[in-house]
UniProtKB/TrEMBL annotation:
It comes from Solidesulfovibrio carbinolicus. This is Uncharacterized protein.
Length: 152
């Protein structure tokens, strides 16, 4: 049933509200990472799944919600992943892509899959590699990136 630009639909036993206006999405979820986004609010705590690839993925995630009440996404678009870095970190990593095989491989993988999943061991290893090579200056910065704290 239409609600302005929004639509409520039933998928199996689930009732889903599809919000299509960007301003409305940001108003409902200030930490809005991009489209598509599944958002569940329970007891005033928002849990979000960014960039799901299917309704089955959303339904499975919603049936087993995160236990920490995470306010941040675990999956980021390549552009939003870049926003997790400071300008200096981003410049260093982009420059290193031309000379560092590990960094070139990391960016190639990000481009191929179209997202960065912080829960993926490959992502965790890539971030650790960036830290070990000095592209990420401190362990504290590494943790901020893993926690989804936008810098740019």
């Amino acid at each position: 049933m239409p609600e302005g630009d929004d639509v409520t639909v039933t998928i199996g036993s689930d009732t889903v509200r599809i919000v299509s206006g960007h301003d409305a999405c940001v108003a409902r979820c200030p930490a809005f990472p991009g489209y598509p986004l599944a958002l569940v609010e329970r007891d005033g705590v928002q849990d979000q799944l960014a960039f799901p690839t299917s309704w089955n993925e959303v339904a499975a995630w919603a049936a087993n919600p995160p236990t920490n009440g995470s306010q941040t996404a675990s999956r980021y678009s390549p552009a939003d992943f870049m926003r997790l870095l400071t300008q200096e970190e981003l410049d260093a990593v982009l420059l290193a892509e031309a000379t560092d095989t590990d960094v070139r491989r990391m960016w190639a993988f990000i481009r191929a899959v179209g997202y960065v999943d912080m829960a993926d061991p490959l992502t965790q290893n890539s971030l650790l590699m960036l830290r070990q090579k000095g592209y990420i200056a401190t362990g504290e910065r590494l943790q901020q990136i893993q926690d989804g704290v936008f810098q740019l």
